[in-house]
């Protein structure tokens, strides 16, 4: 069933309902008795969380054919008439699988809740009903006022009412793993609304509905005094006063954030996400801050956005389901044949080993069913339950291989890779598309101010002066130029930002652009001093003081920010933002060159323009539009975001491996195209198709276009695949989402060598991944920030780029790597080998089970098809779980080709990978098992005759012969694994042949009758086997007859299937001896 683009990862994320239908959230301040019942402010630490997790694990496991198969078998074994073994021998291993799966996830849940419990007990200074006292976090309610200070954790979702600073920095790494701090501004109130005064007031809050999984929060706070405020304020409204109970909060991004006085004298303040602080955030600004508790408990946004879920199924899990169904059908057919033959045999013969109740004349059809079921149960081990135990162990070890791989160590930061979801490693080996963010993923997100155009003068970005720091002309102008525009340019750069600057000149903020600008100014000689809204700057242009009157923060719709400051007797509004948006607001400029930002963009630089307006008067109720119109353009900056080390080599490597590279970024078109060209994602010798919003509308419609002007989805099918690249404007996410649902359009896009999306929203990135998955493609998403988290959740594999300090970019990735260059090794080496090993483990497990079952099946000829077993229960249990277990573990060291080949010949990634379908190359193990099972029984009968069997169905020598066959099968399985092994290591040899030695040693113990009570079956076998030449001849003959023909046949088939790859590998082996260094290898010393 396809996943809807409107509700992706529904089992991981509770998607928001339409905001129109969300009930609003209301609470009262100072009158807690009027509040309705709200959830207790705890974080799901009860035992019900574990019970819910248990139910989730059981539900996921039971909804697989593999588990249902063993549950049904176990229940059938409880019926005495059909039972062939102890039911608990089937059910206990399955139960152990469930317990193991649950314990792994319960441990993760316990680790999280351990820290949560301590948070719930932490006490805060809370004012409720005008009384202030310490209150434990779990007892905080909506409407409470919370006083909080530096380095404190916010106990619930809150609104920042007031602070003794301009704004407050918060760290949300505990919530989303994002390491960059975020800035939050207090609500707007009259100047005399101090913390103490607010605590004496009554009020109410109306906000976005609780339990909405949208992270957008907005609303209003109304404060009402008991006897009217002792100040007068004109009825200045940014939003009309609302008294209608049906009032709904607007979703308009242009809403005004401020306050106004209503007719009744109350004060209303409007808030949005810029004042909202989620539970678990860490306050990183010194001072005293007053917060208003808005949502508690399960209503908190961090609690509603993500729900716990059982482990995702991997591609190997799905492949295991296919093989299990295939074997089930084969087992059922064999059981029906044996049961029918057994039923016919019972019509005339007297078989004392058949229960007498089955021979009743009136129960003949029931007897037929019983015999069929007995044979079905006798062959039940054709589906090996040990795989459900082995695969988690394999995946855990795969994760250890990744985490301990020293080749991942980043030389710049010392960071290493981490496997956070080890069960996803196999998915790395079967990818089709990589969807990558650009900024911080393909680039370093370490910005540097390269050039500045002020007036008609350009500084930096020249051969003599690569950056403005080396530009001597600029340093000279600092000493001589007195023009107001030049001075205002640098004053604007110094103040138009949201960065916090400590007394030791350290910068704290989340905007990489602003950090780059201030870092450049600091290196040019600026020193910054802040005291709330007062600023003092020491600079090469002189020292000056100013006062910040208002900050209009940046948002994506305006694409700009502005700051109103008082410098002496003058008041200025400085504005900074995207050049296109700034130029619209300017009526004059300091020079023609100042608006020439296209040159910067064509060089791949990020661009920002800055402007100013002298205000004749200012009051805090002035409209933003009035402040930001009629500006004078001061200049434009070019900021470099350097590419990641070896990013181009990595992209070329992955592209050569047959993977499609798609880039989804929120950046502007020109910058995106230039960076893509620098990375060779767009090439000069190929056609680049640009799809804008109108083209997407055409694709989203049902029309196919005219013959003269066919749609892209039609034209793309007429040219060769990978002969063009596609660039898409993703600004209208709704239209793009509809277009991506059209299979024809998506197939056309997939024919592109590369697809670049610009102006992407975070949700759009996830829509792209889901559309590809619905079309049968396997997707890897990679990003570096919280805005990429939706993409990572939606992808088959999510990879996060670590921050320089080693912390993960966010908490939703399956793997964390130090840099993009590590992605090549993660996919080509670890992903390919993990998939190869797991496929071999699955094949070998089913091979030995079918081999064993074939011996049981043919044995039925001598038991009149009665469903009797040639081997006892102990032998049945130990064959899969003990004597053939160690050879499987040797696969952990298996490599089909060396790492160097996968780097040098990356196209082998797709050519050699298993398609995970039931095609002939994937069932050779089945054919070999059927052949070897038949030849084992044929050779044993030919060499022993009727001495061990009696056609009447009563076995005389079967117990002894069963041990001979048992020992022979263990040897044959070891030789089969030896053939499957391409890489012979000390460990693999010890595991394969050590398993045989362990069987020999154990047989000596078993014959004494003191170990597990196995004396009856094993007495005399050890001595007879190794002292009797006839027994040894039987074993050797059986092994050679079973192994030799199958080994020859497999070799011929492998040569036929992989002749091209084998020939290339052989050629490269000879050429690599004196060839150039391999990818990422250190250069050879001359």
Question: Can you characterise this structure?
Answer:
By secondary structure, this protein is α+β, with helices and mostly antiparallel strands. The chain is built from 35 helices and 35 strands. The strands form six sheets. Strands 17, 18, 21, 22, 23, 24, 25, 26, 27 and 28 form a ten-stranded mixed sheet that branches. Helix 29 packs antiparallel against helix 34 (1029-1057) and helix 33 crosses helix 34 (1029-1057). The model is unreliable at 1-21, 227-255, 304-310, 947-956 and 1072-1086 (pLDDT under 50). Its cofactor is Mg(2+). This is Phospholipid-transporting ATPase. Keywords: ATP-binding, Magnesium, Membrane, Metal-binding, Nucleotide-binding, Translocase, Transmembrane, Transmembrane helix.
Mean pLDDT: 79
Number of helices: 35
Shape estimate: elongated
Report how far the terminal alpha carbons are from each other.
Answer: 59 Å
Spans of 5+ residues with little confidence (pLDDT < 50)?
Answer: 1-21, 227-255, 304-310, 947-956, 1072-1086
Please estimate the helix content.
40-55%
User: Care to count the β-strands?
Assistant: 35
- Taken as a percent bin, the fraction of beta residues is 15-25%
* Main pleated sheet: 10 strands, mixed
In total, how many domains does the architecture comprise?
A: 4
- Overall structural class, as computed from helix and strand content, comes to alpha+beta
Radius of gyration: 36 Å
């Amino acid at each position: 069933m396809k996943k809807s683009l409107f509700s992706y990862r529904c089992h991981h994320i509770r998607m928001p309902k339409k905001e129109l239908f969300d009930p609003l959230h209301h609470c009262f301040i100072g009158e807690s008795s009027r509040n309705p019942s709200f959830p207790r402010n705890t974080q799901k630490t009860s035992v019900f969380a574990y019970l819910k997790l248990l139910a989730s694990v059981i539900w996921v496991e039971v909804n697989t054919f593999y588990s249902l198969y063993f549950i049904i078998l176990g229940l059938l074994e409880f019926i005495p008439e059909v039972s062939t073994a102890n039911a608990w021998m089937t059910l206990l291993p399955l139960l152990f699988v469930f317990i193991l799966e649950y314990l792994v996830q319960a441990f993760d849940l316990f680790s999280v809740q351990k820290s949560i419990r301590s948070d719930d007990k932490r006490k805060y200074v809370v004012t409720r009903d005008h009384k202030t006292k310490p209150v434990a976090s779990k007892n905080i309610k909506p409407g409470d006022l919370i006083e909080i200070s530096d380095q404190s954790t916010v106990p619930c979702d809150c609104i920042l009412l007031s602070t003794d600073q301009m704004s407050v920095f918060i760290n949300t790494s505990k919530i989303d793993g994002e390491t960059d701090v975020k800035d939050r501004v207090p609500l707007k109130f009259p100047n005399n609304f101090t913390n103490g005064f607010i605590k004496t007031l009554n009020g109410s809050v109306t906000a976005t509905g609780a339990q909405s999984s949208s992270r957008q929060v907005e609303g209003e706070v109304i404060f009402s005094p008991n006897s009217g405020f002792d100040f007068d304020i004109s009825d200045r409204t940014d939003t009309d006063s609302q008294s209608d109970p049906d009032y709904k909060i607007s979703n308009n991004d242009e809403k005004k954030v401020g306050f106004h006085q209503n007719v009744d004298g109350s004060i209303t303040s409007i808030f949005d996400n810029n004042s909202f602080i989620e539970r678990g955030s860490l306050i990183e600004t010194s001072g005293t801050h007053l917060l208003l508790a808005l949502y508690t408990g399960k209503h908190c946004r961090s609690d509603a956005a993500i729900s716990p879920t059982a482990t995702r199924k991997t591609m190997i899990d799905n492949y295991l389901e296919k093989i299990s169904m295939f074997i089930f059908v084969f087992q059922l057919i064999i059981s029906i044949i044996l049961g029918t033959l057994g039923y016919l045999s019972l019509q005339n013969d007297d078989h004392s080993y058949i229960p007498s109740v089955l021979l009743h004349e009136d129960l003949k059809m029931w007897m037929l069913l019983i015999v069929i079921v007995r044979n079905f149960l006798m062959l039940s081990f054709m589906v090996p339950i040990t795989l459900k135990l082995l695969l988690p162990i394999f995946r855990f070890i795969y994760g250890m291989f990744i985490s301990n791989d020293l080749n991942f160590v980043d030389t710049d930061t010392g960071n290493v890779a981490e496997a956070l979801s080890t069960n996803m490693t196999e998915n790395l080996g079967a990818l089709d598309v990589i969807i990558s963010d650009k900024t911080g993923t393909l680039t370093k997100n370490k910005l540097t101010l390269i050039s500045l155009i002020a007036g008609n003068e350009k500084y930096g970005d020249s051969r003599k002066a690569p950056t403005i720091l080396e530009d001597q002309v600029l340093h000279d102008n600092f000493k001589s130029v007195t023009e107001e525009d030049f001075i205002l340019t640098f004053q604007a750069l110094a103040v138009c930002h949201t960065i916090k600057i400590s007394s030791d000149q350290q910068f704290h903020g989340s905007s990489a652009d602003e950090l780059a600008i201030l870092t450049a100014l600091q290196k040019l000689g600026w020193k910054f001093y802040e005291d709330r809204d007062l600023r003092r700057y020491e600079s090469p242009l002189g020292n000056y003081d100013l006062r910040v009157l208002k900050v209009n923060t940046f948002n994506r719709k305006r694409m700009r920010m502005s700051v109103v400051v008082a410098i002496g007797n003058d008041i200025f509004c400085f504005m900074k933002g995207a050049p296109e948006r700034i130029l619209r607001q300017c009526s004059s400029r300091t020079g023609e060159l100042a608006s020439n930002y296209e040159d910067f963009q064509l060089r791949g630089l990020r661009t920002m323009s800055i402007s100013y307006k002298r205000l004749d008067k200012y009051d805090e109720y002035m409209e933003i539009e009035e402040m930001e119109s009629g500006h004078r353009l001061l200049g434009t900056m070019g900021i470099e975001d350097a590419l990641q080390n070896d990013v181009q080599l990595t992209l070329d490597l992955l592209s050569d491996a047959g993977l499609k590279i798609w880039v989804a970024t929120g950046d502007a078109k020109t910058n995106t195209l230039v960076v893509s060209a620098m990375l060779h994602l767009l090439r000069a010798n190929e056609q680049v198709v640009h799809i804008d919003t109108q083209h997407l509308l055409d694709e989203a419609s049902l029309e196919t276009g005219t013959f003269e002007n066919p749609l892209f989805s039609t034209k793309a099918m007429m040219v060769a695949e990978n002969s063009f690249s596609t660039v898409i404007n993703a600004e209208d996410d709704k239209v793009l989402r509809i277009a991506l649902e059209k299979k024809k359009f998506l197939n056309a896009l997939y024919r592109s060598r590369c697809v670049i999306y610009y102006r992407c929203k975070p949700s759009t990135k996830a829509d792209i991944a889901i559309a590809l998955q619905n079309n049968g493609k396997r997707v890897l998403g990679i990003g570096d920030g919280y805005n990429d988290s939706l993409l990572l959740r939606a992808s088959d594999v999510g990879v996060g780029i670590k921050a320089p300090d080693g912390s993960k970019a966010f908490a939703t990735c399956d793997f964390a790597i130090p840099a993009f260059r590590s992605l090549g090794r993660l996919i080509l080496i670890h992903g390919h080998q993990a998939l190869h090993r797991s496929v071999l483990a699955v094949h070998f497990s089913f091979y030995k089970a079918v081999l064993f079952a074939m011996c049981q099946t043919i044995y039925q000829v001598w038991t009149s098809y009665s469903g009797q077993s040639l081997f006892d229960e102990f032998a049945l249990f130990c064959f899969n779980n003990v004597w053939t277990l160690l050879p499987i573990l040797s696969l952990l060291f298996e490599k089909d080709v060396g790492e160097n080949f996968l780097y040098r010949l990356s196209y082998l990634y797709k050519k050699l990978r298993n398609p995970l379908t039931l095609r002939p190359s994937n069932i050779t193990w089945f054919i070999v098992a059927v052949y070897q099972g038949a030849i084992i029984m044929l050779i044993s009968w030919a060499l022993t005759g009727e001495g061990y069997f009696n056609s009447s169905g009563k076995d005389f020598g079967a117990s002894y012969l069963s041990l001979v066959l048992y020992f022979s099968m263990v040897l044959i399985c070891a030789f089969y694994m030896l053939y499957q092994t391409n890489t012979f290591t000390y460990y693999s040899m010890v595991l394969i042949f050590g398993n045989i030695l362990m069987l020999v040693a154990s047989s000596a113990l078993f014959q004494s009758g003191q170990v597990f009570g196995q004396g009856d079956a094993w007495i005399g076998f050890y001595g007879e086997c190794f002292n009797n030449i006839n027994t040894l001849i039987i074993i050797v003959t059986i092994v050679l007859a079973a192994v030799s023909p199958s080994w020859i046949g497999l070799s011929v088939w492998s040569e036929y299937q992989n002749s091209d790859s084998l020939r290339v590998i052989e050629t490269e082996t000879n050429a690599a001896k004196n060839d150039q260094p391999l990818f990422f290898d250190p250069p050879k010393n001359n």
